[in-house]
Amino acid sequence: MNQPATLALADGTVFTGRLGGVAGEAVGEVVFNTACTGYQEILSDPSYARQLVTLTQPHIGNTGATPEDMESAQVQAAGLIVRDIPKRHSNWRATSSLQEFLVEQQVTAISDVDTRALTRHIREHGAQAGCIVDGEGEEATARALVAAREFAGLSGMDLAKVVSTQEAYHWGEGAWRHAQDGEAPSHGKRHRVVAFDFGVKRNILRLLHDAGCEVTVVPAQTTAQEVFDLRPDGVFLSNGPGDPEPCDYAIRAIRDVLARGVPTFGICLGHQLLGLAAGARTQKMKFGHHGANHPVLEAASCRVYITSQNHGFVVDEDSLPANVRVSHRSLFDESLQGIEFTDLPAFGFQGHPEASPGPHDIRPLFERFAKAMEEGTDAASH
Questions:
Q1: Which candidate in 247, 268, 294, 340 is catalytic?
Q2: What average pLDDT does the structure give for the chain?
Q3: Which of 29, 245, 298, 354 is catalytic?
């Protein structure tokens, strides 16, 4: 960790620091995340594919790393940018240090960066391409600048099919609990849910299980007919990375699902794809929302949720059709955070309501999904 490293942005801004993880080159869109904890969940969230994550919390790595906190099978972020990686970690669950974890996962990172200055730069100029390289000086800077400027950006990039599972599988694990919390509530009747994997996080699947769902996870490019063949009570549209508009295969499938009246719940990328399937538009944000402390207002109750966020695209509220209304709104910038159909059992939420990482999960959204499936099943039986 005493080796020098260089971070260059496409606009020519350069930061120097120390190498973390493995020597090499990491290229992607540079974003900042304001979460104080949860660095391992952030790094393994597929929604961060092709992004260099800047963590604004200055000390990253205090609690080490543990396999239980992985949100997918591997690190998904392109690289990591931090102020300081502590030499020691302390946590009874830890099996390795952050540095050891980064090496094991073959991740290139940079520490000793003025992350305050970098964050202010992104807020002023917007998220942009960047590159981390080992080394310093003119040669390293030139190498990083060339790589950063060659990165095409996330607009127009379909990453959902890249990070998605290649084969369908069943999920049967509930949320991780402390011994004193007891067992998860039991459900006498379980609902069959088909979950599209556009980059799904494990804890989202755990909360679907705890909400009474028998979950079958399917690849992003699964057709609507293949979904119907599984006879689902509901369809879940997962989070994921990249631009939603190129995912035409998903938009077509979601339109067919909506036409059947199957209860549908989308989050993050799934929420955006639901909006596109309804006829709305999406647009790229200046620097997106990334963090575990974003306040979101629920329109119906005026309740404020502190949410976990990770998105660089947003559904354009002005493009919503007449049968879709706003259900949630960001209190940071008034951007759209949730939609619901007035004529169908379908709704979407922009944040990550399972709170991994994050201080508060929004279980009512999962309960609402379960209720919609219950009502649909009861109607079908009559």
A1: 268
A2: 94
A3: 354
pTM higher than 0.85, yes or no? yes
The question of whether 311 is a catalytic residue gets the answer: no
268 is catalytic: yes
Q: Is 289 a catalytic residue?
A: no
Question: Helix/strand/coil (H, E, C) string of the chain?
Answer: CCCEEEEEECCCCEEEEEEEECCCEEEEEEEEECCCCCHHHHHCCHHHECEEEEECCCECCCCCECHHHCCCCCCCECEEECCECCCCCCCCCCCECHHHHHHHCCCEEEECCCHHHHHHHHHHHCCEEEEEEECCCHHHHHHHHHHHHHCCCCCCCCCHHHHCCCCCEEECCCCCCCHHHCCCCCCCCCEEEEEEECCCCHHHHHHHHHCCEEEEEEECCCCHHHHHHCCCCEEEECCCCCCCCCCHHHHHHHHHHHHHCCCEEEECHHHHHHHHHHCCCEEEEEEEEEEEEEEEEECCCCCEEEEEEEEEEEECHHHCCCCEEEEEEECCCCCEEEEEECCCCEEEECCECCCCCCCCCCHHHHHHHHHHHHHHHHHHHC
pLDDT band of 177, cuts 50, 70, 90: low
Per-residue pLDDT of 22-36, as tens digits, reads 999 999 999 999 999
- The string of pLDDT tens digits covering residues 75-124 is 999 999 999 999 999 999 999 999 999 999 999 999 999 999 999 999 99
